[in-house]
Amino acid sequence: MISRIEENDLGFTSLWSNAKKMECGTLFLNTLFTDDLFFNKLSDVSCISEQMIDESIKYFQKEHLLPCVYSVNYKELENLLERKGFVHHDTLHVLKRNTGENRKISAIKINTDTVSLWTDIFCRAYDCLEWGPDVTKAVENSLQCADYFIDESKSSCVALYEKNDILGLYCLGTVTDRRNSGLASLLVDFASNEVKSRSLECLILETYGRDNLLKFYSKLGFEQVYEKKVYTI
């Protein structure tokens, strides 16, 4: 299950970032989203290689990005990172929700004519208005590989990515003045209904510990599968 979820994560990340295969990992870089640790990371590390870590640091620094490495229960890697000056920055919790009975929810699917609408909601939800043109480009370039939706009030957004019989839920956000009104949970239910209609196994999402959303997602029926430690310099 973990390997299939990781492939879902890597697949979606590659739609928004440039992926480079390293000795035993994948380096993702997106110089347009300089402060984002999801789209700029060394991930899928499967061996202990100081040379790979050093090369990754050089790639990050060349693009003026913060070096960031993800570890999935890999203590030897974490020890190496700490010796190289990395610190534990955050923990990414990976959650899943099995299919079940949900509310019948409608959502608006984004197409080439409405990408700017999704971009506007995303950028206001994540307080990154300066990313607008680049987000629009990323969505336009990935419309054939992922599905982008907004709620009917046009206040919340989500991206859905299907791989390995799993539906990944990414970029869930609600504009500031409409938060705490149940709009995000509506899109979660919509995504769960998509899992059922597509005959998939489960819905997954990832949330950073610093965002303090574990209780919120637990109330929506999500359970933790595993976690990833995020290391930065």
TrEMBL record:
Keywords: Transferase. The keyword Transferase applies. Residues 108-233 form the N-acetyltransferase domain. InterPro entries: Acyl_CoA_acyltransferase (IPR016181), GNAT_dom (IPR000182). PROSITE patterns: GNAT. GO terms for molecular function: acyltransferase activity, transferring groups other than amino-acyl groups. The keyword Transferase applies. Gene3D superfamilies: 3.40.630.30. This is Putative Gcn5-related N-acetyltransferase (GNAT) domain-containing protein.
